[in-house]
Structure formats: C-alpha cells, structure tokens
Amino acid sequence: MKILDLFSRIRRFFCRPSSVVSGGFSEDFPSWEIAKTHSKGWADNVIFDRVKAAAHLLHEGKVVYERDSVVFEETQYSWGLLAGFLYSAIGNDKIDVVDFGGAFGSTFFQNRKFFAKCKVSWNIIEQPHVVEYGRKCFCHGPVHFFFSLSEALSCVKPQVIIFSSVLPYIENPYKVLAEAVAAKIPVIIVDRTSFHLGSGDRIKIQRVPKEIYLSSFPIRFFEKKAFLNRLEEKYELMASFPSIDLSPSPDLAFEGMIWRLK
Question: pLDDT of 15-30, one tens digit each?
C-alpha cells in the first residue's frame, strides 16, 4: 500500500461524522487500572515494531515526516508548538530541549529546518525499551535519550520542555507535570492533549484504526479547569491553540498550550 493511500484511509477514519468518530474511543471507565486490563497498552510489541520501522526510515532520510508510526511524504506542522519552541530560543545561542515521550525524535525532525542556525540539544525521555533502542541506533548528533526527567536534568538545563501527545497516555500525568513545574523550566509546551469541559478526568480506551495497527490503550480526557489550575500558580498561559488531532465529539477536544514561567 502506498503511503498516500494509507494516509487517505486514516484521514477518512478521523473525518467521519462525530457519532462515528467517537467509535474510536470507548465509554468511560471508572479507573485507569481497569481501563488497562481492557486494552493492550503501550508495551504492545506491535506498536514498538511499527515505531522502530518508521523511525529508521526517518533517520535514514527515506521519508520526511513520521508521526505515531505513520510516515508521510510531506511534513505536517504543529504551528503552536513551533511558536512556543521559537519563543524559548529567543536570546539563546544554544537551546536545550526536553521532549517527554518523544519516541525516536519525531518532533525534532518535524521542525529542525526552523532552528538550523541554532545549536540544539534534543533530549528525549521515554520508556526503558525505547531509550535502550534509541541509544543503540539513533543517539547521534543533537538527539539524546534518558530514562527519566531527573536523569535528563542532571545533564542539561533546558529552556523548554515539550509534552506532545503524551500526558493523556501515562498513568500519573500530574506527578510528571509537577516535576516539570518544580524544575522551573522557563517554557512548557503542551500539545495534542485531550480535554473536556466537565468535572473530573474521564478515562477511556482509544482504539487505533486498523489501517495503522491493531492495538488499544487507556487515554485520559483532562478536566480542563483542573489542568489549568495545576500550572497557573507558577506559570503564565501565553497562548492556547487547536491540535492537529480532530475532536472525537463536541464535548471532547485535543488542544495545545504554551506556558511561561512567572
């Protein structure tokens, strides 16, 4: 199957009417733990194998863009994320980035031509098996891999930390966010993150379209007000922006935000 044919199928899946699009997500579960028992999770080897294969194509220059294991013939930009990154680079000859959950460097390759004249250290925090494979196969140039935020902070003093399509998919996102806030990183970029306007977080299972791969994993739709409250004491919200992910239903949305340390 050609890459563009695959992308067309994926796009058609996500552009169906909302009543059908929501079929990619389950009903609410009472807890993350219960949702885990009803899904395959990120440890699924199918996911890892697909991500590895796409990353090799990207690092070898055979494709120009990869996202969530899907390769594309042209880059799709998250302009809000890029704006936040460029803001963090103002006045710096060198910029240290922490990319939490950054796989094998998708966001770095997505945006690298915009900071070609700036010296960049791109520091990815990932699951242990991703870090081990990344250090073995992809740890060259400005890209580095770490097991935890604390390990990364022992090596670099970042101007910006990126959370792109990661906080909704980890079991303890508030703990991770609190660690980033405590580190007083000047800029926090949140992108492709799921919210709802009601009260309390909502836990669902996201099912991956079969055109990509057969898998499923828990996802958290954050109560937006509570999420904002966790950052507003120490950080100022500079801007919010819609993510490239389409909203699955009128009451659920994927958004991005740029936060600046007060």
Answer: 333 332 333 899 999 9
Tally of domains in the chain: 1
Task: Please state the φ and ψ torsions of residue 72, each to the nearest 5 degrees.
Answer: -130, 160
| Domain CATH code at residue 184 | 3.40.50.150
Q: What is the 3-state secondary structure (H, E, C) of 133-146?
A: HHHHHCCCCCEEEE
Looking up tokens 């991500």 gives 51
Residue 136 domain boundaries: 3-261
**What angle do the packed helices 128-137 and 45-59 form, to 10 degrees?**
30
**Burial (0-12, 13-18, 19+ Cβ within 10 Å), 27:** exposed
Query: Could you please report the per-residue DSSP string of 38-100?
Result: TS--TT-HHHHHHHHHHHHHHHTTS-SEEETTEEESS----HHHHHHHHHHTTT-SEEEEEEE
Tell me 165's DSSP state: S
